[in-house]
Amino acid sequence: MKINEVMKITGLTKKAIYYYENTGLINPAKDYENNYRIYTDEDVDLLKKVDLLRKLEVPVKDIAIILSDPFKINEVMVKQLHSINDKIKYLNKSKNIIESLLEDYDDVNKSLRTDSFEKLSLYLDIDKKACEGYMKKELKRIFPGNFGKAMSFFLNAYLDEPIDTEEKERAWYNLVNVLDSVEEIKFPNDIKTILDRVYENTNNQENFQTLNKEKIDKFISELSKMSTEERQALKTKMESSVEDDKSSRSREDYLRLRKFFSENQVVLPKECSIYLRILSKKYNELCEYILNVQKITG
Length: 298
Prior knowledge:
Blueprint: H1 3-10, H2 14-22, E1 29-31, E2 36-38, H3 41-55, H4 60-68, H5 73-103, H6 114-129, H7 134-142, H8 146-155, H9 166-180, H10 189-204, H11 213-225, H12 228-244, H13 249-263, H14 271-279, H15 281-297
Antiparallel strand pairs: 1-2
């Protein structure tokens, strides 16, 4: 069946279906002659399962685990249950705070005492920091506007861990201060449009895949055995694949943003990398990977 029929059956949008295909959750056959995708009943069934799990706020990466190994559904669901319980606790605390604010409301002066706000804000903030995704949400709150959207686009992949140690607490505080010290950037209208688009995508989709340490180690091991000519051929092939991928809007947007930042000499302070390595295992692994590749290639 074609995508319009699948949309009617599943209630999913075309973009959602394409996204789940791009992330590898479904793999419909392709009619290259007519440039159509041909969806089977099995694809539709998978999409229904994916839709249900997403309504339960199960991350796409965890859905992929369930689809590849159904025996792990219990493990994923237990993890999701813990996440939901954390959110319930946070919502209950928020409810209690609102009730406390209402109790402290001064009917005479029609205002709330500043000290009440400060105490309750601290109480709420401590709890939020222990939750996954806190840094992503805070980044958007602390830096509203186009700068925040740009930072969200470039850093979101590495801000999904909770702040659960004093070292991370200091690193997060320092990262925010360093970002705040970056000079104001003037964004032209076309770049603003791209920022709006990619910001919406990073909000609604999980575009960044977790680094696979085993694959990285294997790649580095194979790279170390290659001759200079073989490494150069691999580099050329990788650059060629990037060029081929430029046809996609997301890739185009990414390249245009990188070009804009480069041409306008917008460079994040080096300290950002230091703090990100503390805040994110993924970012730390990426840095180690790059260092190892550099050592091998000279």
